[in-house]
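re: ur question from yesterday

yeah so i grabbed the chain u mentioned. its 205 aa long if i counted rite. heres the sequnce exactly as i have it in my notes:
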Amino acid sequence: MNKEVNSKQQIANSKNNAPIHYSLFTIHLNAGFTLIETLVAVSLLSVAIVAPMSLTTKSLAAAYYARDQIVAFHLSQEAVETVRHFRDNNILQTALGNPTDILAGIPLGIPFTVNTIDDSIDSAACNSGTCPPLQLDPTQTFYGYGNGWTDTRFTRTVEVETVADNGGVPQEIRVTVTVSWRTGSFQTREVRIRQNLYRWVNDAT
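ran it thru and got these structure tokens back, copy pasting raw so excuse formatting
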């Protein structure tokens, strides 16, 4: 009798420890994740996702800033070339028999704007103390000023001062162009370039 009981007990124990067999599957009865293990896994997953996203956001912001910095530099150089063209056009007028002061039409000592679309200078645009923002044409191609154009984040200010003169007549001038802008959450930045122009030919003076 005792042998029969022990035999039945051994069979029962073996059934408790053995996997459950079906016709197509073998199912193992294992313990699941605890709550702490789940929380740790979620925390690690969050760090793995948030860190690359934060890095990507900062990289995009830096790329936009670099883009605007390049645009600002070219806008500054463009204004210097416009003032130079103004001077050279006066030289051409003298060469064509219409004696003209080589620096005529270039404001001295006051901030002004230049419109490279038509090579015009507006000495009254900055009378309020600040110059108006540059604008984009409807095709989003050209910077300048025009009716129906949209304001941009860039503001360009041009100033010209006398470096050397002869009897009160400027012989050398310094053109200073400042372009300021703000990209996203960055603070306001600016690009400033300077270039000297000379009265290098005889003119009406």
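noticed a couple things. The mean pLDDT is 83. also The chain is about 40% helix and 25% strand.
anyway ttyl
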